[in-house]
Write a structure and sequence with these properties.
Layout lengths: L1 H90 L5 H22 L6 H44 L1 H23 L6 E9 L14 E8 L8 E10 L5 E2 L9 E4 L2 E4 L2 E7 L4 E8 L7 E8 L4 E9 L1
Antiparallel strand pairs: 1-2, 2-8, 3-4, 3-7, 3-9, 5-6, 9-10
Helix pairs in contact: 1-2, 1-3, 2-3, 3-4
Length: 323
């Protein structure tokens, strides 16, 4: 009986065990086909994403190159405008020596601005905008000189006509001169009636270690500002401060190495800090005064500018070109 039972169980396992094995194999085939299908879909999705990213990257690169190209073109246009302005300055001529000297200084400013522009990257928008403003200022200055020269030419023509008329009638000319002189004296009396102390003859010079005047930036150790307080008999007498504010070629204020020279003051409602200052005793008579600016900063090539003040008024301005 046990042998027969064992034989029947063996036949059962052989018969149904094989069928189960075939069924499991089919399931494994189906699972393999499903996994392969999912893998293909994933590859397609990743390929699509990569294609989109590639397109976006290409667009960004094209946009960047276009922007850089526009900035370089803008820098080139600005350079051309400066070169044209420099040429315009060279074409301006006059017999007035003072105007010719001023024109030479302005032309030098244009040349230095061109050099600074060439050394600046087109992508530096802050500097480019600053240079555009300086270009506008130099243009305005040139227009002012042209108007001044035209006025002088017109005045010269008028003076020649007046001289011709004066030769025909000398007595009338003398009467006109006397009337003009009287009027001028009256205006001078009215101008001096004000109580505000004014200045004149503001000048800025650079000195080397030997305290000699120089225009070589590498030899400058200090700047000196000199001016005169005009005589004013009705002005308040006593000690008063004269303040100077000095600026380098980039428009940055230069400060004295001595803290005592940096004083806050107000002029015309504007709060300022002096680069240097000096106290003088004003007694109603004309006073000559010089103020020295010693600084730890190195001097560079370009135009330095000084503005002189009291708390009552701006006394004047001057500049110097260091080479």
């Amino acid at each position: 009986m046990e042998e027969q039972l064992d034989q029947e169980m063996l036949e059962f396992e052989q018969r149904y065990g094989k069928k189960g094995s075939h069924r499991n194999g089919d399931d494994n085939d189906n699972d393999g086909q499903g996994s392969e299908s999912k893998g293909r879909i994933l590859v397609i999705v990743l390929a699509a994403i990569a294609a989109v990213l590639a397109v976006v990257l290409v667009i960004m690169i094209i946009s960047k190159n276009r922007l850089v190209g526009d900035l370089n073109a803008e820098k080139a246009d600005l350079t051309n405008e400066l070169v044209a302005l420099q040429s315009d300055y060279e074409e301006i001529t006059t017999t007035n020596a003072a105007i010719n000297d001023s024109l030479a200084v302005e032309k030098e400013k244009v040349g230095q601005l061109i050099e600074r522009l060439q050394k600046t990257e087109a992508t530096n928008r802050t500097k480019i905008r600053q240079y555009e403003k300086e270009l506008g200022t130099l243009r305005s200055i040139m227009k002012g000189y042209i108007a001044q020269i035209d006025s002088l030419n017109t005045l010269n023509i008028a003076l020649r006509k007046e001289a011709t008329a004066a030769r025909k009638d000398a007595e009338l000319s003398r009467q006109q001169y006397d009337e003009l002189k009287t009027t001028t004296e009256q205006y001078a009396e009215k101008a001096s009636a004000g109580a505000v102390v004014k200045g004149r003859g503001v000048a800025l010079v650079a000195e080397n270690k030997s305290q000699k005047t120089t225009d070589r930036s590498s030899r400058v150790v200090r700047l000196k500002t000199c001016l005169s307080l005009i005589e004013n008999s009705i002005a308040e007498r006593g000690p008063r401060y004269i303040y100077i504010c000095v600026f380098d070629p980039d428009g940055n204020q230069i400060m004295s190495s001595s803290v005592d020279q940096r004083r806050e003051f107000t002029c015309g409602g504007e709060s300022l800090v002096s680069s240097a200052c000096r106290q003088v005793d004003y007694q109603g008579e004309e006073v000559d005064v010089c103020i020295y600016l010693n600084t730890d900063e190195a001097f560079v090539k370009g135009v330095y500018t000084v503005n002189a003040y009291t708390t009552e008024t701006k006394l004047g301005t001057a500049d110097i070109l260091l080479r």
